[in-house]
Amino acid sequence: MNNTIPAAGRERDNVVNLQERRLDRTVLRTYRTKADIDIILPNDKQPRLGPKVDEELQRQIEANGGLFEPLLVEPHPDFPGKFRIIDGDRRWTNSRVLVEQGKEEFRQLPIEVTDRTLSDEDRLRAWIYIHRQRKEWDAKEKEMVAYRLVDLMGRASAANILGITVRELDKLVDIFELSEKFTSLRDPSAAITWAREMMGVSKKLFTPSIVEAVVKKVNDKRITNSKDLRKLRSILPDPVARAHFLSDAGDLDSAMLRLGPTEKKPKGGLSGDLEAAVEAMKGVPWTTLQDLKGDPDILKKIDDAEALLRSLRKALS
């Protein structure tokens, strides 16, 4: 093994080459160099969960002749002369796969080294800031990271690092935990999308039996489009439709067919009174109107109503 950096001595040589890198409220002083893959170690408090081996990323590394973006690393606090990854765990993992395949040309990795070992909070803040700039943050990562941060640091510190309220943090954690129940999707990362749609429905309607029924029907591929879960907003408040959906035979479309007629809530005040009067007149049967034709009392009341409405319009104009 050829270590490009006998680290401690070389770090002192690079002090004059330090540059500032601002990551939100965290300002890092770093220098760039290369190091052997064996003196770079992963971070055991990595916020990203799940598998990191990615064949497509390996192909990209090979096509580029190595890593295009250097790993962000810090001096390792427990192993002198080695570095710990702040950002770049996937790139390191897939470079190691290539080296283990005998492709030694990928052993030397470009790195950007901080001038000090960061605190846990600064390290996490730096990682989160970097990942928020990437497309996958909105696609799948923020719920996963929220869940991981709560596990690492507790709810209050996690919310502070993410710059959100504890209530917002709890919602992200709930979405992540729910997404873990969707186990049969073709694309596992799409589970977050399904969970987000479910959490868009009123939480008080989501009893454990409803969650279990939805997850089972999704995993059984009886619900195949995440947007269809929005139908639950109509189904769950209706006792007949909800009971049918919970049955073994029920699905979203068949439950929608069992929705009862919706009743309009009456509006209060003058607007509500006028609307009620109009609806009452619309509801008079045609045969009744025929019987009342020419009735002097009805015609007098209509005249009075017209006069009152004209006065009302004039007053409100």
UniProtKB/TrEMBL annotation:
InterPro entries per the UniProt record, alphabetical: Chromosome_partition/occlusion, ParB/Sulfiredoxin_sf, ParB_N
Cellular component terms (Gene Ontology): chromosome
Keyword Thylakoid: no
Xref: SUPFAM superfamilies: ParB/Sulfiredoxin
Residue ranges constituting the ParB-like N-terminal domain according to the UniProt record: 33-124
Coiled coil: none
Protein name: Chromosome partitioning protein
